[in-house]
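Record pair follows.
FIRST:
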Amino acid sequence: MIECLKGKVINIEPETVVIEVQGVGYLIYTGNPYKYEEWLDETVIIYTYQHVREDAIRLYGFRHREERRLFEKLLQVSGIGPKGALAIVASEQPGLVVEAIENEDEKFLVKFPGVGKKTARQIILDLKGKVEEFVPSLTQSVPGEARASKTSSYSQELEEAIEALRALGYIEKEIKKVIPTLQKDSLSTDQYIKLALKEMLQR
């Protein structure tokens, strides 16, 4: 499985974005592709899930690893396919989805395309008690726009470094502790990562 792609956003369509990585363009299905317009012709990190069917192989992309984890969990639910799971994850409120599952809130879940009462009950039955621990950073009920605005205040290099730290397995609590130190200087992505790792080892 391809863990993630780091490359330049070169094309945006209603359902997909194209990421160029060392001369190769990867077609990635993602929720709300036009949110990538601010990164057009810039380098981003997208976490991917490869879905294989008899008639197609597709890459689905996410800005955060936690979103991909929630997507993978939803795929385990009977009646939920990649398109439906992507619509739920791309709702810009994944934390609220987790809360709805934990609180057995069917009314919230049926708002999503293709999710009726039967499917909502199945989601709760299959995932309650499993997603809250699996995606802890999504349970803070922070809407996607708020999360995005918080991240957008960082430089591109710092944002990429933060994504890299997440990919290395560091939790949000650990990352947040070192961000103030990282923001003091204007560094390259690799320099930010090295500084963050150094700071974490000293704590």
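SECOND:
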Amino acid sequence: MKKNPAIPYILILVFGIVLVFILSFKGLGDMKEIATDNKGAGGAKTEETASAKPEDIYKNAGCIGCHGDQYQGGMGPSLKGIGDKISKDEIKGFLTNGSDKGMPAGLVAPEQMDAMVEWVSKIK
């Protein structure tokens, strides 16, 4: 007598559906805990960002991906000597609003903006 070759596939299907339901209910049970953890993490992240140095913000905000690890540029322009080319207000405008050439807005927290503008303007 030959065995039905579909039986292993049916067993895997049933096991997968049961697993999805179990994990869904587990996730529903943890929903409030996760929401509470995210609120706490947001507060800690804000404090961490507020005390961060501009160099750390540059590395962590993703600026390094476009402007390079030595500020030499790449996808974005070089930041070397940028303070001699444009004003601090223009630098602040780019950091706050981004640009239509691919610079995203809001990478620097408002409480760090002045320190970041000062630092960027002095890159040589």
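COMMENT: The mean pLDDT is 81.
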